[in-house]
Amino acid sequence: MNDLNVFGCGEFRYRVVADWPRWPVDWNVIEVVGVATDSQDRVFVLSRGEHPVTIFDRDGRFLGSWGEGLFARPHGITIAPDDSVFCIDDFGHTVRKFTPDGQLLMTLGTHGVPSDTGATSIDYRTIRYVGPPFHFPTNVAIAPSGELFISDGYGNARIHRFSSDGRLLHSWGSPGAGPGQFHIPHGIAIDRQGTVYVADRENSRIQLFSPDGDILAEWPDIARPCEVAIDDNGRVFVAEVGYRAGMWPGTQPPHSGATGGRVSIFDSHGQLLARWGGGDNPTAPGDFFAPHDIWFDSRGDLYVSEVVRAAYGNAKPPVGEADFHTLQKFERL
């Protein structure tokens, strides 16, 4: 085994799997915004290409696709315990629930109609006040109760709590950097006790809440987190975009050596267990340019997606676009 392809430490050591997955010939996925696994360890990949939802087995073999023509811009994907698939369409301002083969079951929000927050663009700094669902929503998490918690992120600064059948129950949050405030609530996850973890991206922290929105804790050792995933043992996996990609106009890294994209693993108390990446060589196996989502399968293997095109925007990337990762698999050792 080549140790250059082994990452993490202690209990959390991984080997990057080369050439995973095997995309159909001539497909342009553009960038992979989300990844999730179902009860059969099938891997559902959400991309911004012509075939938004693509399904692979754990060995990377192509199984099928769906979602063509449905999304204004895909942003996030979550799979429920019953294997239903939730997809976030941020530019469409909707959250939709599908069967695993793509049959629509429920829609939250009105497609193409944002709520009123005074925002004039996807730039969170244009938000003037909070509003109802949704204005550029970002991700969804499913509580043990079956309730849905949705981060409403670029054009709002709220977490919305819905019943399992889609009734709005409660919302919390406002623009800002104080406790319970957000500058892009970008990712969201819920542990087995019902604690809500929110990736507060532009505040470079994770905030923990009760299901009612009471602030419980803040984890600051985070570099612009995009998404959070929590395993059955309460370990918290974080995809961090870092400070070398996707910076908003007029913003600067906190210091000249600030980290690039990376993955971090914490215990349930916020103690760091493992970390790798940093963006020093973002096209190398195991390093990252712009991590956007993270998930795992039943064997503990990790899947990390990246949004290269959105992250460099109008700037020229440091190397050719085709050299960057869209999706990496890390096999747990």
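[next item in queue]
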Amino acid sequence: MKRTVLILGGSGKIGSHAADAFWDAGWEIRHYDRKSGDMVKAARGVDVIINGLNPPAYHDWERTIPEITSQVIAAAQASGATVIIPGNIYNFGDQPGVLDENTPQIATTKKGRVRIAMEESYRASRVQTIVLRAGNFIDPQGNGDIMSMLIMREIKKGKITAAADPHTMQSYAYVPDWARAAAKLAENRAALAQFEDIPFPGHAFTIADLQAAVSNASGRDIKVSRFPWWIMAILSPVWELAREMREMRYLYAMPHQIGSDKFDRLLPDFRPTNLEQVMLAGLPADIDPNKVMGPSGQTIVAN
């Protein structure tokens, strides 16, 4: 019998790539977005629910995340489906080093505390839940990911933006890889516990590493500029996103990567996309080894 997955938020980076990965694995795909109405009705007969819903620009985080969580739990309880969530590292607070399922969850921010409460709600619900916990998401389609919104925002001017010291190690998750891993875990869900916290190791690199990779690929000397946090401080009283970003500033300065032991035990044959491809995923399509950019950002065909 064909398996069915319900994708929540199919237009987002998680939902869109999850739909591709599950389709490739032979699943029937069903979609739900915020305009679809009754989530419980949409979940009837499904085997797995991918929760790709998230408040845009951190808007009204404390109210919206619990509302989404309650809806998803009700849908999963009614259908008997397993829920897979893209976890993050907000739960850990400021703890440099290797982060994994054994790292204490001592969030120091509002968003981190909300995420901890969210996961506890799933655990208490008795719905089978897989938290596939990842670092900064990189979407090759540039769908609201860290590359398009922050790091590569001035790449056509020959600049990469660093939100902290460019030599700080950070964890990254290539969304197509995350989605493939989610599909493989879904296929093996019968062997998993009722609540699983699974770190997704992805890749780890510094902005300095990225600078070198982009310089080599583009044939141009790429500069690193610092993100203007002072502007966020000025705008915080009147702009919600500025306030929310400032709260998470510590993450960019916290050297870390995600441990791989549990993930490797569960999916020993998983092969991630190679590091260079992941690092260059945020480059615009017209920047490649055969082209260089002029000083004003125009493309010049190299000889």
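[queue empty]
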